[in-house]
Amino acid sequence: MTIPTSTYRIQFRNGMTFDKAVELVPYLRDLGISHLYASPVFTAAKGSTHGYDVADCNEIEPEIGGREGFDRLSAALKEAGLGLIIDIVPNHMASALENPWWRSIVEWGKDSRYSHFFDVNWMRRLTLPFLGDDFQQVLDAGDFTLLYDAEQGCLALGYFESHYPIAPATYALALGSIDHPQADALIALARDAKPEEEDAFHQSVRSLLSAEQAERLNASLAQLASDKTFLASLHEAQPYRLMSWRDAPRDLSYRRFFEITGLAGLRVEDEEVFLESHRLTLELVKNGQVDGLRIDHVDGLADPGRYLARLRDEVGPKCTLLVEKILAHGESLPAKWPISGTTGYEFISSVSDVLIEPSGLETMRRSYAELAGQPIDVEQEIRKAKGLMADVNFEGEFRTLVTTGLEIAQTHQGQGSAALDDAAFSHALRELLIAFPIYRTYGHAIGLEPADRQRLSEVLTKVRDGKEPPDAEALSMIARILIGDVDQTSEARAAVFRTRFQQLTGPLMAKSIEDTLFFRLNPVLALNEVGAEPLPRSFSLQNFHADMKLRQAQQPEGLSASTTHDTKRGEDARARLYALTEQPDSFAAAISDWREKNAVGLVQLNDGAAPEPEVEWLLLQALVGVWPHDLDPGHAEGLRALEERFLPYVEKSLREAKLKTSWNNQNAGYEKAVLAYASRLLAPETLAFREDFLNRMRPVMLAGAVNSVTQTLIKLTAPGVPDIYQGSETMDLSLVDPDNRRMPDYDRLQDMLDHTPDAADTETWLTGHLKQHLIATLLKLRQQNPDLFWHGDYTPLTIAGEKRDHAVAFARKLGKQTLLVIAPRFVLAGIQGMNALPSAEFWYGTGVSLRDLRFDGGLEDVFSGRGFEPGERLMLDDVFSERPYAVLLGKA
Q1: CA separation, residue 810 to residues 31, 658, 813, 818 (Å)
Q2: What is the rounded CA–CA span in Å between residue 362 and residue 536?
Q3: Which end of the chain is least crowded, N or C, by CB within 10 Å?
């Protein structure tokens, strides 16, 4: 297998093209990157900003350079000695008309040659939830037309810019009453049309009509469209049903990705679908242009393990496979998966154990609860968020499970099982979904593996002992279906139930926790991150070291991420916010003062003041995380630039919380009031607030920069493959997407890389210049010693002395090679009131024990070249005499 020593993630689109990426290859090489890690490059829906809404799996997006541009990038990477990993999306595709497979099933229904490509319930008409209102309301408003689409060569129902092709079988209904010289010929063509020859049919239609005839036909069709009864009957005859987007959560005939109706589930478990949807991907791997694949949302697949085994068979043993998978605390990847590991969200959670001050965290939680005026019951808030998702956002998926489950239960009523009603079964299923602690289990056609059965048993016990225990027979029936304890006549339906249940638990967890709860409860924003645990837990170095030892044992070749295109904030904003836990009382006092200074910005609404105190806490803490260290509080242009980023974040935060407003039901008055408050924080009249804000937060910014360096050193040297997200090699204070998907200023990054920073200058810490230098230095070290980082043992090192809690240390050891890493933490007290790093005296009397390590050849500082002759201890005031961090390479 071609194992990366590091990866660099680039987001294509939004200005980034293949040719632009070619220009960056020398920079990536000089930074020490081994593999470029690309966002999806396949043709996506029109206007896509991310590429995950793939419209054609077997074409490379023309707007970013097409196949020729991709080939140029591939060649440039090869010439520079860099590999390429691409992001593929096997779970879903765009349910858009520019997707030829989807367009085909819209036009031909279940007779389409692609009808089995998507997870569609063909017992119903295909639902198309893209209307702005109910069908009848849209019809009455006159927003539908009937037209000939010359580009596609078909008749279509028009709704503004969308032209939905009508089924050829209904051409006679559409054309039977019009006076047109080619009407009969069109009807005859349609009558003889075959779905497997749809391209030929469309070409024949185009050939039949001259431009003049097409214009005349459209005039006749427009007259027909004035008859709303006729349009309604024509629509009723189609294999699809146009409907309001608002009805999608409860009335959809196809599996979607999360809540996104514009993304339809793909059935890659079908061999034909797998091969056709991976045709170009496999070509790129087999011809050597692609060295690895990142599999998006692997938990959305019907059978992830089987899919990964099938993919491995095709790509061979050398191709790196990485999966986007959220691991709960204590959860491991299935051992049978033939992959290198995950994309590394769990690493973010592990690093927080190093940089969160535990007692300070508890103080911040208490201060937040006092501000809210009530204790925070996180478990109850999880119940509320998950219940909302089950009842509203995923109502359709939930009801499908209930219907299938009751059908299975009915077959058991004559075998000693009690009759179950809808209410009892629904309640039991709802409680099980709410209690489910991980993204999913990995059952197959006949049931669950032993580990998953044990997990299910534990969850069932929790449900039975919960506050709202469901009907015992209903819960038992669901358990029997999931483990496969059903009669032979129900096995097929039980397998469907099991698959759909497993495909629902992940989205329900993600949308409940990451995209609801983490915008509702905000005592420490840095912990509201993808992969984080929603329930309060203990934080300690012991936890971190245990995680790293487990990481080395289970996925040493998995990615170690600190920022991705999906994280809630940039890694350095998170690192800065960690520092607030070091002096929580000072932050709480600051919040109190700032709220008082900005009280005039509150707006009294019918249900109280906006923003609420908890939202003020959110806004002010977010401002701490995002504020550029060099932004003067009165600099108008800089404040406007910050406002352009900050206000969209505020709006998204309010809507994701789903408390007083949401994406589906916007409260314009409330949003206006909160956005005005947020805008006022950056307005000329609040200069005094911002001056006080910066005066108090400057030490936090520097402490955050120290945290950033520590976080970076850990990522570069601990088990796993470091992944650098575009631009995060320097200071990344981005907010949630789309803010974190802006293209970096690569000219500035190259200029910084060309100059060596002075670690004694705090400005190099605050700009991220030092961070970039550390990355470039250590990535080259990884390239020179790959086995040490891939396979070296991870050994926690003991620190003793007065400042023992203010540093973290560990060793990597393989044979005669040993690497020591010592990094600072909790330094805010050492820089309070000034803009200087803690001096060497700060560390006096504190040392790292080397009792179990031997260095006959001594130690050498990787950054300065300084040599050390260690005894049983390395004293930090000596090691940190020039800079408060050290990476030492030695030989036994």
Answers
A1: 25, 43, 10, 10
A2: 9
A3: C
Segments in 510-635 forming alpha helices (H)? 518-520, 541-554, 571-578, 584-597, 613-626
Question: What is the pLDDT, as a whole number, of residue 892?
Answer: 64
- The burial class, CB within 10 Å (0-12 / 13-18 / 19+), for 126 is buried
DSSP 858: -
Let me know: does 850 contact 874? Beta carbons within 8 Å.
yes
Whole-angstrom Cα distance, residue 849 to residue 843?
Answer: 15
The edge-to-edge listing of strands for the beta sheet with 867-868 is 793-796, 807-814, 817-824, 886-891, 859-861, 867-868
Tokens of 324: 């986007």
How do the residues of the chain divide into helix, strand and coil, expressed in percent and rounded to 5? 50, 15, 35
Work out whether strand 42-44 and strand 54-60 pair parallel, antiparallel, or are unpaired: antiparallel
Q: What would the pLDDT profile of 301-312 be if each residue is shown by its tens digit?
A: 999 999 999 999
Burial of 850 (0-12, 13-18, 19+ CB in 10 A): buried
β-bridge partners, 35:
7, 83
What whole-number distance in Å separates Cα of residue 43 and Cα of residue 62?
7
Span 372-404, pLDDT tens digits: 999 999 999 999 999 999 999 999 999 999 999
Please tell me the distance from the alpha carbon of residue 482 to that of residue 823, in angstroms, as a whole number.
48
**Closest among 78, 69, 129, 458 to 262, alpha carbons compared:** 129
Q: What are phi and psi of 417, to 5 degrees?
A: -90, 140
CB 730 within 8 A of CB 763: no
Distance CA 101, CA 116 (A): 10
Q: Which residues contact 609 (CB under 8 A, 6 or more apart)?
A: 602, 603
pTM assigned to the model: 0.96
Are residues 563 and 728 in contact, defined by beta-carbon separation less than 8 angstroms?
yes
Angle at which helices 450-464 and 422-435 pack, to 10 degrees?
110
Torsional class of 51: left (φ above 0), alpha (ψ -120 to 50), beta (otherwise)? left
Taking each helix axis as running N to C, give the angle between helix 18-31 and helix 746-753, from 0 to 180 degrees, rounded to the nearest 10.
20
Q: Is the dihedral of CA 16, 19, 20, 22 positive or negative?
A: positive
Q: Give the DSSP letter of residue 465.
A: T
For 715-752, letters b (16+ CB in 10 Å) and e give bbbbbbbbbbbbbbbbbbbbbbbbbbbeebebeebeeb
Burial class (CB in 10 A: 0-12, 13-18, 19+), 764: buried
| Alpha carbon 575 to chain centroid, angstroms | 19
Nearest to 551 by CA among 825, 791, 305: 791
Contact status, residue 342 vs residue 325, Cβ threshold 8 Å: yes
Residue-wise pLDDT tens digits, 286-299: 999 999 999 999 99
Distance CA 276, CA 319 (A): 20
What is the Cα Rg of the chain in Å? 30
Element (H, E) at 627: none
What length is written for the chain? Answer: 892
SS3 206: helix
